[in-house]
Amino acid sequence: MLEFGKEFIWGAATASYQIEGATNEDGRGQSVWDTFARQPGRVVNNDDGLIACDHYHRYKEDVAMMKELGIDAYRFSLAWPRIMPTGEGAINEKGLAFYDRLIDELLAKDITPWITLFHWDLPQALQDNYGGWQSKEVSQRFADYAKVVVGRYSDRVKNWFTINEIRCFTTFAHREGFHAPGGILPEKMVNQTIHNALLGHGLAVHAIRSASKQAANIGLVENLDTYWPVIDTTENIAAAKKAWLLANDAILLPALRGGYRDEYLELLGADQPDFTAEEMKVIGTPCDFIGYNYYSGIPVRANPQSEVKLHGKTLINPGFECLPFSSDYPKTDMTWPITPKAIYYALKFTQEEFAGLPIYITENGMAAADVEQKNGEVIDLSRAEYLRTHLEIINRARKEGANLKGYFVWSLMDNYEWSLGYSKRFGIYRVNYTTQARKLKYSGEFYRQVITNHR
Hints:
This protein has helices at 16-19, 32-38, 55-69, 80-83, 93-108, 124-130, 136-153, 171-174, 187-211, 234-247, 252-257, 262-268, 277-283, 340-353, 381-399, 442-453, and strands at residues 9-13, 73-77, 112-118, 159-164, 217-222, 227-229, 289-294, 298-302, 307-310, 313-316, 320-322, 359-364, 404-410, 429-431, 438-440. The mean pLDDT is 98. Helix 3 runs parallel beside helix 5 (93-108), helix 7 runs parallel beside helix 9 (187-211) and helix 9 crosses helix 13. Strand 9 and strand 10 (313-316) form a beta hairpin. It is α/β, with parallel strands linked by helices.
Protein backbone atom coordinates (compact mmCIF):
# COMPACT_ATOMS: atom_id res chain seq x y z
CA MET A 1 0.00 0.00 0.00
CA LEU A 2 1.12 3.56 -0.66
CA GLU A 3 1.28 5.36 2.67
CA PHE A 4 0.67 9.11 2.94
CA GLY A 5 1.06 9.53 6.69
CA LYS A 6 -1.32 11.02 9.22
CA GLU A 7 0.08 14.53 8.76
CA PHE A 8 -1.09 14.66 5.13
CA ILE A 9 -4.22 16.79 4.68
CA TRP A 10 -7.19 15.28 2.86
CA GLY A 11 -9.83 17.70 1.65
CA ALA A 12 -12.55 18.54 -0.83
CA ALA A 13 -13.12 21.77 -2.73
CA THR A 14 -16.00 23.88 -4.09
CA ALA A 15 -16.59 27.44 -5.28
CA SER A 16 -19.27 29.90 -4.23
CA TYR A 17 -21.01 30.58 -7.56
CA GLN A 18 -20.99 26.91 -8.47
CA ILE A 19 -22.89 25.68 -5.40
CA GLU A 20 -24.45 28.45 -3.30
CA GLY A 21 -27.44 29.65 -5.30
CA ALA A 22 -29.45 32.35 -3.49
CA THR A 23 -28.01 34.94 -5.85
CA ASN A 24 -30.85 37.39 -5.17
CA GLU A 25 -31.19 36.83 -1.42
CA ASP A 26 -30.11 38.65 1.73
CA GLY A 27 -28.55 41.64 0.03
CA ARG A 28 -26.13 39.86 -2.28
CA GLY A 29 -25.04 42.01 -5.21
CA GLN A 30 -24.77 40.82 -8.78
CA SER A 31 -21.60 39.23 -10.13
CA VAL A 32 -20.16 39.12 -13.64
CA TRP A 33 -21.24 35.48 -13.81
CA ASP A 34 -24.86 36.40 -13.10
CA THR A 35 -24.67 38.85 -16.00
CA PHE A 36 -22.80 36.47 -18.30
CA ALA A 37 -25.25 33.61 -17.70
CA ARG A 38 -28.21 35.84 -18.63
CA GLN A 39 -26.76 36.46 -22.10
CA PRO A 40 -28.44 33.94 -24.45
CA GLY A 41 -26.11 31.28 -25.77
CA ARG A 42 -23.25 31.99 -23.40
CA VAL A 43 -23.95 28.94 -21.22
CA VAL A 44 -25.15 25.47 -22.25
CA ASN A 45 -28.95 25.35 -21.95
CA ASN A 46 -28.75 28.98 -20.74
CA ASP A 47 -28.18 27.57 -17.23
CA ASP A 48 -27.37 29.97 -14.40
CA GLY A 49 -26.34 29.86 -10.75
CA LEU A 50 -29.63 31.14 -9.36
CA ILE A 51 -30.22 27.92 -7.41
CA ALA A 52 -27.17 25.74 -8.21
CA CYS A 53 -26.85 23.23 -5.34
CA ASP A 54 -28.76 25.48 -2.91
CA HIS A 55 -25.79 25.28 -0.55
CA TYR A 56 -26.78 28.64 0.93
CA HIS A 57 -29.76 26.95 2.56
CA ARG A 58 -28.35 23.42 2.82
CA TYR A 59 -24.88 24.08 4.21
CA LYS A 60 -25.53 22.07 7.39
CA GLU A 61 -26.49 19.04 5.32
CA ASP A 62 -23.39 19.54 3.19
CA VAL A 63 -21.07 19.80 6.20
CA ALA A 64 -22.63 16.60 7.55
CA MET A 65 -21.71 15.00 4.20
CA MET A 66 -18.12 16.17 4.64
CA LYS A 67 -18.05 14.60 8.09
CA GLU A 68 -19.37 11.35 6.60
CA LEU A 69 -16.61 11.49 3.99
CA GLY A 70 -13.98 12.00 6.68
CA ILE A 71 -12.09 14.95 5.19
CA ASP A 72 -9.71 17.00 7.31
CA ALA A 73 -10.23 20.25 5.41
CA TYR A 74 -12.76 21.99 3.21
CA ARG A 75 -11.69 24.52 0.59
CA PHE A 76 -14.48 26.93 -0.34
CA SER A 77 -14.66 30.43 -1.75
CA LEU A 78 -16.39 33.54 -0.49
CA ALA A 79 -18.75 35.37 -2.83
CA TRP A 80 -17.35 38.88 -2.97
CA PRO A 81 -20.74 40.39 -4.01
CA ARG A 82 -22.45 38.63 -1.09
CA ILE A 83 -20.15 40.43 1.31
CA MET A 84 -19.67 43.74 -0.53
CA PRO A 85 -22.57 44.06 -3.02
CA THR A 86 -20.81 46.65 -5.19
CA GLY A 87 -17.31 45.34 -4.51
CA GLU A 88 -16.36 48.37 -2.43
CA GLY A 89 -17.80 50.54 0.28
CA ALA A 90 -20.90 49.17 1.99
CA ILE A 91 -20.64 45.80 3.69
CA ASN A 92 -23.53 43.34 3.76
CA GLU A 93 -23.81 41.95 7.28
CA LYS A 94 -26.12 39.12 6.19
CA GLY A 95 -23.50 37.95 3.74
CA LEU A 96 -20.79 37.95 6.39
CA ALA A 97 -23.13 36.13 8.76
CA PHE A 98 -23.68 33.29 6.30
CA TYR A 99 -19.97 32.48 6.23
CA ASP A 100 -19.84 32.82 10.03
CA ARG A 101 -22.43 30.05 10.21
CA LEU A 102 -20.61 27.89 7.68
CA ILE A 103 -17.23 28.28 9.40
CA ASP A 104 -18.71 27.52 12.81
CA GLU A 105 -20.48 24.43 11.45
CA LEU A 106 -17.23 23.16 9.94
CA LEU A 107 -15.31 23.68 13.16
CA ALA A 108 -18.03 21.95 15.14
CA LYS A 109 -17.49 18.89 12.92
CA ASP A 110 -13.66 19.08 13.24
CA ILE A 111 -13.19 20.16 9.62
CA THR A 112 -10.64 22.90 9.01
CA PRO A 113 -11.83 25.76 6.74
CA TRP A 114 -9.49 26.79 3.92
CA ILE A 115 -10.89 29.94 2.32
CA THR A 116 -10.45 31.15 -1.25
CA LEU A 117 -11.02 34.91 -1.41
CA PHE A 118 -11.78 35.08 -5.14
CA HIS A 119 -13.06 32.33 -7.41
CA TRP A 120 -14.19 34.42 -10.42
CA ASP A 121 -17.48 35.97 -9.20
CA LEU A 122 -16.38 39.59 -9.48
CA PRO A 123 -19.01 42.12 -8.37
CA GLN A 124 -20.67 43.45 -11.53
CA ALA A 125 -20.36 47.01 -10.23
CA LEU A 126 -16.56 46.75 -10.38
CA GLN A 127 -16.82 45.61 -13.99
CA ASP A 128 -19.16 48.49 -14.80
CA ASN A 129 -17.24 51.17 -12.95
CA TYR A 130 -13.62 50.21 -13.66
CA GLY A 131 -13.65 47.63 -16.46
CA GLY A 132 -12.95 44.85 -13.98
CA TRP A 133 -9.41 43.51 -13.95
CA GLN A 134 -8.44 45.86 -16.75
CA SER A 135 -7.94 48.40 -13.97
CA LYS A 136 -5.44 48.45 -11.11
CA GLU A 137 -8.21 50.08 -9.08
CA VAL A 138 -9.80 46.63 -8.86
CA SER A 139 -6.49 45.19 -7.60
CA GLN A 140 -6.71 47.62 -4.68
CA ARG A 141 -10.43 47.00 -4.14
CA PHE A 142 -9.62 43.30 -3.85
CA ALA A 143 -7.10 44.01 -1.10
CA ASP A 144 -9.68 46.15 0.70
CA TYR A 145 -12.18 43.28 0.51
CA ALA A 146 -9.53 40.84 1.77
CA LYS A 147 -8.93 43.02 4.80
CA VAL A 148 -12.64 43.03 5.64
CA VAL A 149 -13.11 39.28 5.51
CA VAL A 150 -9.83 38.41 7.22
CA GLY A 151 -10.68 40.82 10.00
CA ARG A 152 -13.99 39.03 10.41
CA TYR A 153 -12.97 35.36 10.18
CA SER A 154 -9.31 35.09 11.15
CA ASP A 155 -10.11 34.34 14.78
CA ARG A 156 -11.23 30.94 13.41
CA VAL A 157 -9.50 30.71 10.03
CA LYS A 158 -5.77 30.70 9.35
CA ASN A 159 -5.55 29.16 5.85
CA TRP A 160 -6.15 31.53 2.93
CA PHE A 161 -6.00 31.21 -0.84
CA THR A 162 -5.96 34.63 -2.50
CA ILE A 163 -7.10 34.02 -6.10
CA ASN A 164 -8.12 30.90 -7.97
CA GLU A 165 -6.82 30.34 -11.51
CA ILE A 166 -6.06 33.80 -12.84
CA ARG A 167 -6.16 32.72 -16.48
CA CYS A 168 -9.85 31.79 -16.26
CA PHE A 169 -11.09 35.36 -15.83
CA THR A 170 -8.35 36.93 -17.95
CA THR A 171 -7.31 34.90 -21.00
CA PHE A 172 -10.38 32.64 -21.03
CA ALA A 173 -12.59 35.72 -20.73
CA HIS A 174 -10.77 38.21 -22.95
CA ARG A 175 -8.61 36.20 -25.36
CA GLU A 176 -11.03 33.31 -25.91
CA GLY A 177 -14.32 34.80 -24.76
CA PHE A 178 -15.96 31.81 -23.08
CA HIS A 179 -15.74 32.91 -19.44
CA ALA A 180 -17.22 35.91 -17.66
CA PRO A 181 -17.12 38.79 -18.09
CA GLY A 182 -16.47 37.99 -21.77
CA GLY A 183 -15.45 40.46 -24.42
CA ILE A 184 -12.36 39.95 -26.59
CA LEU A 185 -9.66 42.52 -25.83
CA PRO A 186 -6.41 43.50 -27.57
CA GLU A 187 -3.47 41.28 -26.54
CA LYS A 188 -1.81 44.04 -24.53
CA MET A 189 -4.94 44.47 -22.42
CA VAL A 190 -5.33 40.70 -21.96
CA ASN A 191 -1.82 40.65 -20.52
CA GLN A 192 -2.64 43.71 -18.43
CA THR A 193 -5.59 41.89 -16.81
CA ILE A 194 -3.23 39.07 -15.86
CA HIS A 195 -0.75 41.51 -14.33
CA ASN A 196 -3.47 43.40 -12.46
CA ALA A 197 -4.80 40.14 -11.01
CA LEU A 198 -1.28 39.24 -9.87
CA LEU A 199 -1.02 42.68 -8.29
CA GLY A 200 -4.32 42.03 -6.52
CA HIS A 201 -2.88 38.78 -5.20
CA GLY A 202 0.22 40.51 -3.84
CA LEU A 203 -1.77 43.34 -2.26
CA ALA A 204 -4.10 40.78 -0.70
CA VAL A 205 -1.17 38.90 0.86
CA HIS A 206 -0.19 42.15 2.61
CA ALA A 207 -3.80 42.79 3.62
CA ILE A 208 -4.20 39.31 5.09
CA ARG A 209 -1.02 39.58 7.13
CA SER A 210 -1.98 43.00 8.45
CA ALA A 211 -5.56 42.04 9.37
CA SER A 212 -5.17 38.47 10.61
CA LYS A 213 -5.72 37.79 14.30
CA GLN A 214 -3.38 34.79 14.15
CA ALA A 215 -0.43 33.68 12.07
CA ALA A 216 -1.83 33.26 8.56
CA ASN A 217 -1.01 30.56 6.01
CA ILE A 218 -1.35 32.14 2.53
CA GLY A 219 -0.93 31.06 -1.07
CA LEU A 220 -2.02 31.52 -4.67
CA VAL A 221 -3.93 28.83 -6.58
CA GLU A 222 -2.82 28.25 -10.15
CA ASN A 223 -4.02 25.85 -12.85
CA LEU A 224 -0.52 25.70 -14.17
CA ASP A 225 0.42 24.34 -17.56
CA THR A 226 1.88 20.87 -17.12
CA TYR A 227 4.07 18.93 -19.52
CA TRP A 228 5.32 15.37 -19.44
CA PRO A 229 7.94 13.53 -21.48
CA VAL A 230 6.32 10.59 -23.23
CA ILE A 231 9.62 8.70 -23.12
CA ASP A 232 11.74 9.49 -20.07
CA THR A 233 15.04 10.32 -21.73
CA THR A 234 17.32 13.04 -20.42
CA GLU A 235 16.59 15.14 -23.51
CA ASN A 236 12.81 14.75 -23.26
CA ILE A 237 12.74 15.55 -19.54
CA ALA A 238 14.77 18.71 -20.21
CA ALA A 239 12.36 19.60 -23.02
CA ALA A 240 9.36 19.11 -20.71
CA LYS A 241 10.92 21.36 -18.10
CA LYS A 242 11.71 24.05 -20.66
CA ALA A 243 8.08 23.91 -21.83
CA TRP A 244 6.89 24.11 -18.22
CA LEU A 245 8.97 27.22 -17.53
CA LEU A 246 7.96 28.99 -20.73
CA ALA A 247 4.27 28.21 -20.39
CA ASN A 248 4.12 29.36 -16.77
CA ASP A 249 5.92 32.66 -17.38
CA ALA A 250 2.72 34.72 -17.14
CA ILE A 251 1.43 33.81 -13.66
CA LEU A 252 3.25 31.15 -11.64
CA LEU A 253 6.83 32.30 -12.09
CA PRO A 254 6.29 36.04 -11.45
CA ALA A 255 4.20 35.22 -8.38
CA LEU A 256 6.95 33.04 -6.93
CA ARG A 257 9.94 35.08 -8.15
CA GLY A 258 8.66 38.64 -8.17
CA GLY A 259 9.60 39.32 -11.76
CA TYR A 260 8.84 38.45 -15.36
CA ARG A 261 11.51 36.50 -17.17
CA ASP A 262 13.24 38.34 -20.00
CA GLU A 263 12.21 35.58 -22.42
CA TYR A 264 8.54 36.24 -21.62
CA LEU A 265 8.75 40.00 -22.07
CA GLU A 266 10.66 39.59 -25.33
CA LEU A 267 8.00 37.19 -26.59
CA LEU A 268 5.18 39.64 -25.77
CA GLY A 269 7.02 42.62 -27.25
CA ALA A 270 4.69 45.61 -27.55
CA ASP A 271 1.91 43.55 -25.96
CA GLN A 272 3.60 43.28 -22.56
CA PRO A 273 1.67 44.81 -19.64
CA ASP A 274 2.48 48.12 -18.03
CA PHE A 275 4.12 47.57 -14.65
CA THR A 276 6.57 49.05 -12.18
CA ALA A 277 9.38 47.57 -10.14
CA GLU A 278 7.39 48.31 -6.99
CA GLU A 279 4.41 46.36 -8.32
CA MET A 280 6.63 43.36 -9.06
CA LYS A 281 7.95 43.51 -5.52
CA VAL A 282 4.37 43.38 -4.23
CA ILE A 283 3.49 40.52 -6.59
CA GLY A 284 6.50 38.55 -5.37
CA THR A 285 5.64 38.94 -1.68
CA PRO A 286 6.61 35.56 -0.20
CA CYS A 287 3.75 33.13 0.34
CA ASP A 288 3.58 30.13 2.62
CA PHE A 289 2.66 27.63 -0.11
CA ILE A 290 1.47 27.26 -3.67
CA GLY A 291 -1.80 25.59 -4.65
CA TYR A 292 -2.02 23.59 -7.87
CA ASN A 293 -5.26 22.75 -9.68
CA TYR A 294 -4.58 19.85 -12.00
CA TYR A 295 -6.71 18.00 -14.53
CA SER A 296 -4.70 17.24 -17.67
CA GLY A 297 -1.28 17.79 -19.20
CA ILE A 298 0.54 18.00 -22.51
CA PRO A 299 2.97 15.35 -23.84
CA VAL A 300 6.26 16.63 -25.25
CA ARG A 301 9.52 15.45 -26.72
CA ALA A 302 12.75 17.21 -27.55
CA ASN A 303 12.78 18.70 -31.04
CA PRO A 304 15.17 21.43 -32.19
CA GLN A 305 12.83 22.41 -35.03
CA SER A 306 9.23 23.06 -34.04
CA GLU A 307 6.58 25.73 -33.58
CA VAL A 308 4.58 26.16 -30.37
CA LYS A 309 1.86 28.68 -29.54
CA LEU A 310 2.11 30.21 -26.05
CA HIS A 311 0.74 33.39 -24.49
CA GLY A 312 -1.03 34.29 -27.72
CA LYS A 313 2.26 34.17 -29.64
CA THR A 314 4.07 31.63 -31.82
CA LEU A 315 7.50 30.43 -30.69
CA ILE A 316 9.83 29.23 -33.42
CA ASN A 317 12.17 26.37 -32.50
CA PRO A 318 11.73 26.47 -28.69
CA GLY A 319 13.42 23.07 -28.40
CA PHE A 320 10.36 21.00 -27.66
CA GLU A 321 7.40 19.63 -29.56
CA CYS A 322 3.88 19.07 -28.23
CA LEU A 323 2.63 15.68 -29.38
CA PRO A 324 -0.93 14.99 -30.57
CA PHE A 325 -3.32 12.63 -28.78
CA SER A 326 -4.78 9.80 -30.83
CA SER A 327 -8.55 9.56 -31.14
CA ASP A 328 -8.65 6.50 -28.86
CA TYR A 329 -6.60 8.10 -26.06
CA PRO A 330 -8.47 7.92 -22.69
CA LYS A 331 -10.30 11.17 -21.94
CA THR A 332 -12.70 12.55 -19.36
CA ASP A 333 -16.26 13.66 -20.08
CA MET A 334 -14.76 17.12 -20.70
CA THR A 335 -12.69 15.43 -23.46
CA TRP A 336 -9.56 16.24 -21.44
CA PRO A 337 -6.85 13.57 -21.84
CA ILE A 338 -6.04 11.62 -18.67
CA THR A 339 -2.33 12.22 -18.01
CA PRO A 340 -1.26 11.51 -14.41
CA LYS A 341 2.43 11.69 -15.33
CA ALA A 342 2.08 15.42 -15.94
CA ILE A 343 1.29 16.23 -12.28
CA TYR A 344 4.27 14.10 -11.25
CA TYR A 345 6.57 16.24 -13.36
CA ALA A 346 4.95 19.48 -12.20
CA LEU A 347 5.71 18.49 -8.61
CA LYS A 348 9.27 17.49 -9.53
CA PHE A 349 9.95 20.70 -11.48
CA THR A 350 8.54 22.81 -8.63
CA GLN A 351 10.85 21.07 -6.17
CA GLU A 352 13.81 21.73 -8.45
CA GLU A 353 13.00 25.41 -8.99
CA PHE A 354 11.52 26.33 -5.59
CA ALA A 355 13.07 23.83 -3.18
CA GLY A 356 11.16 23.52 0.08
CA LEU A 357 8.07 25.46 -1.00
CA PRO A 358 5.04 23.59 0.39
CA ILE A 359 2.57 22.48 -2.28
CA TYR A 360 -1.11 21.61 -2.01
CA ILE A 361 -3.07 20.03 -4.81
CA THR A 362 -6.09 22.28 -4.44
CA GLU A 363 -8.19 20.68 -7.18
CA ASN A 364 -7.96 17.31 -8.90
CA GLY A 365 -10.76 15.22 -10.33
CA MET A 366 -12.71 14.56 -13.48
CA ALA A 367 -16.03 15.04 -15.18
CA ALA A 368 -17.52 11.62 -15.79
CA ALA A 369 -20.63 10.43 -17.62
CA ASP A 370 -22.17 9.18 -14.38
CA VAL A 371 -25.01 6.71 -14.66
CA GLU A 372 -27.36 6.28 -11.73
CA GLN A 373 -28.28 2.60 -11.15
CA LYS A 374 -31.82 1.42 -10.45
CA ASN A 375 -31.00 1.23 -6.75
CA GLY A 376 -29.74 4.82 -6.76
CA GLU A 377 -26.03 3.99 -6.72
CA VAL A 378 -23.61 5.82 -9.00
CA ILE A 379 -20.85 3.39 -10.02
CA ASP A 380 -18.38 5.91 -11.48
CA LEU A 381 -15.42 3.59 -11.99
CA SER A 382 -13.72 6.01 -14.38
CA ARG A 383 -13.53 8.67 -11.66
CA ALA A 384 -12.39 6.18 -9.02
CA GLU A 385 -9.57 5.04 -11.31
CA TYR A 386 -8.68 8.63 -12.20
CA LEU A 387 -8.29 9.43 -8.50
CA ARG A 388 -6.37 6.22 -7.83
CA THR A 389 -3.81 6.75 -10.61
CA HIS A 390 -3.24 10.38 -9.64
CA LEU A 391 -2.86 9.57 -5.95
CA GLU A 392 -0.39 6.81 -6.81
CA ILE A 393 1.83 9.12 -8.81
CA ILE A 394 1.77 12.03 -6.35
CA ASN A 395 2.76 9.54 -3.66
CA ARG A 396 5.76 8.66 -5.80
CA ALA A 397 6.65 12.34 -6.19
CA ARG A 398 6.43 12.84 -2.41
CA LYS A 399 8.75 9.91 -1.80
CA GLU A 400 11.21 11.46 -4.25
CA GLY A 401 11.25 14.76 -2.35
CA ALA A 402 8.30 16.86 -3.54
CA ASN A 403 7.04 18.90 -0.59
CA LEU A 404 3.39 18.00 -1.10
CA LYS A 405 1.35 18.61 2.05
CA GLY A 406 -2.26 17.94 1.07
CA TYR A 407 -4.84 17.06 -1.55
CA PHE A 408 -8.30 18.52 -2.22
CA VAL A 409 -10.54 16.54 -4.54
CA TRP A 410 -12.62 18.45 -7.07
CA SER A 411 -15.36 18.45 -6.34
CA LEU A 412 -17.31 17.65 -3.21
CA MET A 413 -20.51 17.58 -5.25
CA ASP A 414 -21.81 18.01 -8.77
CA ASN A 415 -22.31 21.70 -9.48
CA TYR A 416 -22.62 24.53 -11.99
CA GLU A 417 -19.75 24.01 -14.42
CA TRP A 418 -19.48 27.62 -15.64
CA SER A 419 -20.17 27.98 -19.38
CA LEU A 420 -21.10 24.29 -19.52
CA GLY A 421 -23.91 24.80 -17.02
CA TYR A 422 -25.15 21.59 -15.43
CA SER A 423 -24.15 19.39 -18.35
CA LYS A 424 -20.95 18.09 -16.69
CA ARG A 425 -20.56 16.38 -13.32
CA PHE A 426 -17.34 16.54 -11.31
CA GLY A 427 -18.67 15.61 -7.86
CA ILE A 428 -17.93 12.62 -5.68
CA TYR A 429 -21.47 13.26 -4.41
CA ARG A 430 -24.24 13.19 -7.00
CA VAL A 431 -26.71 16.08 -6.88
CA ASN A 432 -30.25 15.72 -8.17
CA TYR A 433 -30.89 19.29 -9.32
CA THR A 434 -34.66 18.81 -9.11
CA THR A 435 -34.86 17.49 -5.54
CA GLN A 436 -31.40 18.69 -4.38
CA ALA A 437 -30.81 15.21 -2.92
CA ARG A 438 -27.14 14.27 -2.47
CA LYS A 439 -25.74 10.74 -2.88
CA LEU A 440 -22.18 9.50 -2.32
CA LYS A 441 -20.80 7.98 -5.54
CA TYR A 442 -18.54 4.96 -5.74
CA SER A 443 -15.54 7.26 -6.26
CA GLY A 444 -16.49 8.93 -2.98
CA GLU A 445 -16.44 5.54 -1.25
CA PHE A 446 -12.95 4.97 -2.66
CA TYR A 447 -11.79 8.42 -1.49
CA ARG A 448 -13.28 7.84 1.98
CA GLN A 449 -11.31 4.58 2.23
CA VAL A 450 -8.08 6.37 1.30
CA ILE A 451 -8.70 9.08 3.91
CA THR A 452 -9.58 6.57 6.63
CA ASN A 453 -6.41 4.55 6.09
CA HIS A 454 -4.05 7.42 5.09
CA ARG A 455 -2.95 5.23 2.19
